[in-house]
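It is worth pausing here to work through a concrete case rather than discussing structure prediction in the abstract. The textbook approach is simple: state the sequence, then state the predicted structure, then interpret. We follow exactly that order.
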Amino acid sequence: MPQSPVILKVCRLLILIILFPTLSFDLTQQGSISLEHQVKAVYLFNFAQFIEWPEKTFSDTNDPIILGILGKDPFGLFLEETVKGEVVNGHPIIVQRYANVNQIKACHILFIHSSVNTRMDNILNDLKGQNILTVSDATNFTKLGGMIRFVKDANKIKLQINLNTVKEADITISSKLLRLSEIVD
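Step two, the predicted structure:
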C-alpha cells in the first residue's frame, strides 16, 4: 500500500527525534508551518505513546486520546495530518482546539500556547487535579506548574519535565522519555 507524503515526512521526523534526540534542526520557515512547529507536533503525538494515564481516565477501551490546543494554534493542519488514523493502545487520537480553559471537558495532552502566558498561572491552577499532560513552549512553564516545556536551544528542541507536577496529576511518563529530558522542580 503506498504511503502518503505526510506520513513519510512524519516517519522521518520520528526516526530523527528518537534516534538522534540532540540532533540540530534548521528551525526556519518551511511553507506556512515552521519546521520547529512540525517537530513539536511530532513530539506531541509521541507523548501519547510514552504516557500512562490512570485507568479511570478512559471510560471505554476505544475512547480517543484527545490532544488539545489552548490559545493560538501554531500547527495548522499538520498536527491533524500527523495523528490521522493513528491508534495508541487501542485509542484513536483526535485534535481539539480551545479558546479558554473552561471549554476543556475531556483532554489528555494539552498544548498551551505562549500567547496565553499572562493567564498561565490561572490556567494551570484550573487544570490542577486533572489527568491532563500539560505542554508548552512558554518561558518558566515548568516553574509555574506545567509538566513538559519545549525549550529551543540553538537549533535543537529539548524537553524540560516537572516530574512533581506529573506525579500530582497521577500520570506516568516512560523512562525512555525521561532519559531524553531535563528534570526540573
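Step three, interpretation. Strands lie at 51-52, 65-70, 87-88, 91-98, 109-112, 133-136, 148-153, 156-162, 172-173, 181-184. The radius of gyration is 16 Å.
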